[in-house]
Here is the input.
Amino acid sequence: MASIFELPEDLLATLAESFPCRDAQIRALATLLYPRAAPCRNLIVHGTEATGKSAITTTLLAALRDDPGTDLNYATVKSAECVTARHLFERTVGLVADAVQWQGPAPGRCETLAALTVELSRMLKYAERDAADRFVLVFDGIDRQREAPPTLLPALARLSEIIPNLTNIFILTTPSPSLLRCSSPPHLHFPPYTKAQYLSILSRQPPPSSLPNTAPEETAELWTRFAAAVHDSLTRPAARTLPALKHACAALWPRFTAPVAVGTHRAREFSRLLIAARAYFQDEGVLEPGILSSVPSTTKPATQSLANGTAAIAVGAGAGTAPPAKNPNKPKPSTDLSTLLPPTARLLLIAAYLASHNAPRHDNTLFSTWHNPHGRRRRAVNTQARHSKKSKHRKIARKLLGPGVFVLERMVAIYVATRREWVGDHDENNAGGGNGKVVVGVDGDVGMAIATLASLRLLVRVGGGAGAAVGGADLDRGGRWRVNVGWEVVRGVGRSMGVEVEEWLVE
Amino acid sequence: MAVDEPLGEAYEEKQHQAAYIFDPSDAVDDGTRPAKRRRVSKKLKKSEAHTVASTSVYPRLFDGAESERCAHIRQQLFEHTWSKIESRIQRILREANQSTLRQVTSFLQAAPDHAPVGKIPSAFIITGPNIASQDLLFEQLAETLQLQADASVVRLRSGDASNLKAILKKMIHDAVAKVTDDEENDLEVAVSKDGRRFLNYDLEALHTHLKSSPRRHVVIAFQDSEAFESGLLSDLISLLSSWLDRIPFALLFGVATSVELFEARLLKSTCQCLYGRQFDVEQSATIVAKVFKAAVAHSEAPLRLGPNLVSSLLERQRDQVASIPVFVSSLKYAYMCHFYANPLTVLFSEELDEDALHGENLEALRCLPSFRHSVEMAVKEGDIQRARLLLEDDRYLTTYLRDRLEHFRHWAVKFLRILKIITINNSSSAGLADMYLDSLLRGVNLSDQDAEIGESIKRMQPSDSILFLTRLLDVIDNGDPSLGLDAGAGDTEEAVMELSDILADIKRLHQENEEEGKVLRSKYSGQSKIVRTTVVAQKVQLSRDTAALTDNDKLYTDLMDRVLEQLRIVLRVEGAEDLVFNEIWLYDSKALYKDVFIPRPRGVGERALSRPHDYLGCSCCRSREDQVMPTFPTTAVLYQLYLETGSLINVADLWSAYYAIVGEDNEGGLDERTALVLFYRAMAELRVMGFVKQSRKKADHVAKLAWKGL
Here is the structure.
């Protein structure tokens, strides 16, 4: 042994090659892990999303394990896969057993931290092993662990005190000062990439495809400038991660270079290309196609949609001055509840909205026919103009505020009061001829409609009993509810029934 | 237990009565040992009866005078006919989902090839708001995917998913148990190779299981995805996506509203884990129309359901959140009611034996209004002999009945054929339902009430009329299997011959004119009038002009006249109500259906409280509209007072008002202590029924919870 302190240099070199711009972190990590360097007991690796924490840690550990010169073994526990703390413990034990190829008796249940300590000690401490070999236990994303007890992190940190040769690595987003409740464990920060780093990483990877009628060098240069533009316009303000930038570049590249492919612009004319593709840099539509890359009702697979977009742009560019059209495949959003719900449910939804957004003291004015000789209800008078002059406090329109809570009985009362007017207007002749009378009243069907709205989460139960009755099974009239749709939706629903909901709202 | 069971027994006996006084005390009295022994023996007998013949459910009608056999036949008839109808409906429902099934299957089969890495392929099935009816769809999906896409399918409902652990437990259990199907394997699977037991919510177990029995997909179907708590769903999806590199998950979502609304509820980061496609199922309106064809209008359906009932059923499908299973069970209920309560349904039976045709049944037949009407008609026509025979000779009546029932069968087929012909032009089958409802009772007659149809046929362009006639002849020649119509012209063969001749003529004329480049028209078609525009001194003058008809046009006009004439012969049928004995095969009551399928518990309770006489039927409680009587049950008295209060009720005021009604000042009044006891009891009852609750706003007040009429 030549020196007390040494690092596996060639191993680190290959690692640095595959993870560019992370030299410092890799070296630091290797120093803190390599048995012949300065191995530590606990290590906190932190940094924001997609900065290479987990990838570098696991790759380095795998490389060290496979290195014949070192006796190092490791196991990685991903908290994202563990549902409870107990699940985490059992997985830890299982993974460690797999890693050390445990031959002894199968570990039993492992419900608590104490049991975890016992099991790990059995496998790591008392097993016959070299004094020099180390075991590294990586807890990936431990700060996101579900149902974690408050003592979880400190207790895990104590494991390495009980078991010599054990190194714990905690990978998390932001460490708090007293995370492990032990004095100054080493912290290793993975900072977000800078613009220069982003560009150097991106320029290592060639553009998805070489451009026609352009030299490869020109393409590469255009790619770099393009990546810088994408970074400045999209990544800096919004998506700050490398995968997001890669995705954005990959998605925009064909659209951006479409004029070059068609031949209207040349690859050197970067600013003209940028102006032609300006719309894409301002709009996220292309990058965020929504939940589902191919929700469109068309039955084409997603891969085609990109090609279609390109073709459409090409046509647009070929036509001349026309700016690139929006993604032609974008479906019209079908958020229109009015076409989805049957009339009774729609009426109930409006009634619920009114109940949520009108104060109960206005109910008499709005819905009562008592004081009005003609049997017509007084509509709400829009008094906002008067208010804004007099009062110093600007009042926020109720419909802009969150929905209020109402008692179910009140909503049903509003439904009954409004139904006669709203439906009566439409069905007067129909009802007169066919059924003889307009059935106003609450029967099983109304209950069913309310239950349906509740199960669609358009109405939600609040307060006691909300959790008990998932899907709105409990239709107790004394229950407290809230409407869960916004003004735009309700207005649309109202108009589909010929009702201007605005007239029924008191400002 | 010993006390409870007699109560249940007493209830069981009474539960089919419209109303009864619930008095537990008399049942409890004989809840002693001997009574119990007796009851047990009775139960035994009942179960024996069940095993011997599960048939004696239908009661003997005519106040018990109906023979046991007739009741039996009625029940069998019901079971037989309904099972046929139901199988037709089932076939339709299963077929309706076929295209969705195919699409989803092919999507999932192809998903591994084109889904981006790290995204879960997910199919969003837009089912419409009646999620409850989609069980069949998901059942079929599970079957198909298991067979064709080599997937193991787990169906989840919002009900069995209160938290993440519970969902995972169910998922793993179902996915593992589906394949192994027996306990031992199940246990084996929960243990890893080195003998560790997995937690029952550990996806590692599923992973291990998949190693031993590999599958292309593990499909998780969320049947009512909107009802799942969105946080839970997001959590689950991100968990599944973290396992995606080891377990080939795929998701199915049943979405009631729209994918966009559903998406808005999930976390953005969750959405990025999904790679989805939207699928639609067949519109419930079209399925309802198909079911209508197969169950209501079908020629083999023995019962004609009247427009009153059917239109309210269809309306309910349109206006309410009612599902197709509800529609089907409503139809079933109508059948049940008819066969259960109408003794004459025994006459549907194929072999009308003497047993069915004697005594009470014949008597009942003679009481039918349609029969009386026909006798009166016979008298009016001077056929006294026949009228007498009908009334007196049982044998003659039997023959007549057979003849009429036979006639009904012909009529039903003819009616359907006519409907089909009339609705040839509007392709939607909803038109058929409307037409059916319109003309079932009054029949079809082109010369009077349905003259409009005739007019529209008359105005047809030659190309249209050729198409119309071709289709018409096609319907007559081939029938319509979806309606159960056989081929054949029936009694209108001559007219059909004539019509096909006319069709040939029209075709010839049309061709001739086309060769000459002219337009063939009749004097009825709209183009016969031409509007001429003349500009005179900067003013536009419109003048109408009748275009001269060519010879061919005149010929065409004649032909169309003849078509109409023939159609008047072909398309003529009397209404159901004009047929004798229509009471046997016509059912058109919606009151029963409404009571059962659209209950109004609140209304019933309110009525019972405000007019107890309606239910109790005692003389002391008879009152005029909304008048309180001291003899009312105390709760009813309190309820009347309750209706007059505001939202907070002062209990002391309520008491004094109550005492003023029932107190000693009145005739036969109660003393204060008795009244107070009754008052307390009634208040407690009101509270139990949910009318009032304790209020914290004011001392000695209760809050009013229910308003009348809601």
Remarks:
- The two ends of chain B are 39 Å apart (CA to CA).
- Residues 4-52 of chain B form one domain.
